[in-house]
Amino acid sequence: MSLTKGDRQMNIEVPAVFPVSYQALEQEAKKLMSKGAYGYVRSAASNEETLRKNTTAFEKWSILPRMLRNVADIDMSVTLGEHTYPYPIFIAPVGMQKLTHEEGELATARAAKTIGVPFIQSTVSSYSIEEVKAATVDSPKWFQLYWSRNEQVSFSMVERAERAGYEAIVVTVDTIMTGWRETDIATQFSPLKEGYGKANYESDPAFMHALGEKTDHESMIQSVLDNIHYPEMNWSHIAALAKRTSLPIYIKGILHPEDVQCAIEAGASGLIVSNHGGRQLDGTVAALDALPAVVKAANQKVPVVFDSGIRRGTDIVKALALGAAAVCIGRPFVYGLGIDGQVGVEKVLENLIEETRITMSLAGIARVKDLNQLKLIRE
Ligand SMILES: Cc1cc2nc3c(=O)[nH]c(=O)nc-3n(C[C@H](O)[C@H](O)[C@H](O)COP(=O)(O)O)c2cc1C
Ligand SMILES: CCCCCCC(=O)C(=O)O
């Protein structure tokens, strides 16, 4: 197979046998991607303590399976708000995917459509909302918003997502500034500065209007950064957005149970428990360890989605058993994309779904809706 462009090392072949485990995916992606690009995806903030804790947290929970419960028909469907999806799996918002593969979000969204998994598109995607929509008409898509200091830009992007038929808005609240990412500082790698994440901005009338005549690359990127860097952000911004859109708003980055009430009062329809894969604040609680208290605080008023650390089907089952309504897949699909574009993402998703199916069967639970009956023991 010929090499695709993107931020890659040249002369390295796509592997004949597609890697299955997360470790193998990471190793292959490392060979194919440039040092800067691979480092950007793999690494996390500060001492990477949260990155490590996110995965080891899963090993502290053990499944207590039930036997002989007729699991011939496994039903993995989930309903969130008005929408039912075939699997409890979403593609997490990941920015700047052209960094990993030339077709970036177009390849990922196509793979998501083929497999039947909703695609969450990042604000800082390499292809615009309209381009992704044109490439994947009639497939479920959500839009992740990085709130802009210029709120007209935020409202404008949300209106574009509405027009494109996206089903929900995800507002990420853990990135009011970039985390302290030592790998990227050492490699001096900034994909935003290189322009990988500007598609939604340069196609946005409110952003371009505010930019005026300074449309050169440097000015544009500086304006993107100035918009996202917004330490003043608070819950009133979510309330303002809730008044402007009829789409459900999911707040991504919740860890503290007391933030659940803040989010609901501001108008959120759902939450995503996440620590951004350890890329923002290091030293936080593992996302999985934050999940039960957030689920309890949500008290079934709003669905609680989960991400940060999902690497395999057993992780998915454990997160769902602890009360998540669905999970988002992050780094595993990014590596699949880096290895073999759309096909690579499809393979990663297929493997995750198959392992989830087998895990549910062997644990004795036939329907995702019943996974709250699965007993987990904290070791
Ligand atoms: C390369 C990369 C880029 C990301 N970009 C975004 C983004 O644009 N918006 C966002 O809300 N989260 C972003 N995330 C965080 C993911 O949505 C998700 O929270 C994280 O990947 C979960 O951790 P995991 O991949 O270790 O499971 C990004 C993650 C990675 C690895
Ligand atoms: C100025 C914030 C840039 C964040 C870009 C994408 C992202 O969320 C990441 O984790 O990387």
From TrEMBL:
The lineage of its organism: Bacteria, Bacillati, Bacillota, Bacilli, Bacillales. The keyword Lipid metabolism does not apply. It is an enzyme of class 1 (oxidoreductase). Glyoxylate binds at residues 40, 146, 181, 276, 279. Its EC number is 1.1.3.15. Gene3D superfamilies: Aldolase class I. Keywords: Flavoprotein, FMN, Oxidoreductase. This is L-lactate oxidase. SUPFAM superfamilies: FMN-linked oxidoreductases. It comes from Cytobacillus kochii. The active site is at 276 (proton acceptor). FMN binds at residues 93-95, 122, 144, 172, 252, 274, 307-311, 330-331. Its cofactor is FMN. Signal peptide: none annotated.
